[in-house]
Amino acid sequence: MPTLRDIKRRIRSIENTQQITRAMEMVAAARLRKAQSRVEAARPYGLKMQQMLESLAVAAAGLHHPLFEERKVKTTLLVVFSSDRGLAGSYNSNMIRNSVRYLRQAPPGSVRLGIIGKKANEYFKRRSYPIDFAITDLGGKVDLTRTRRLALDITEKFYRGDVDEVKLLYTRFVSMVSYRSTLERFLPIEKPAGADDKAVTDYIFEPDAEKIFTSLVPRYCVTKILQAMLESFASEHGSRMIAMGNATRNAKEMIDNLTLLRNKMRQASITKELIDIVTGAEALK
Question: Confidence band (pLDDT; 50, 70, 90) for 199?
Answer without folding.
Answer: very low
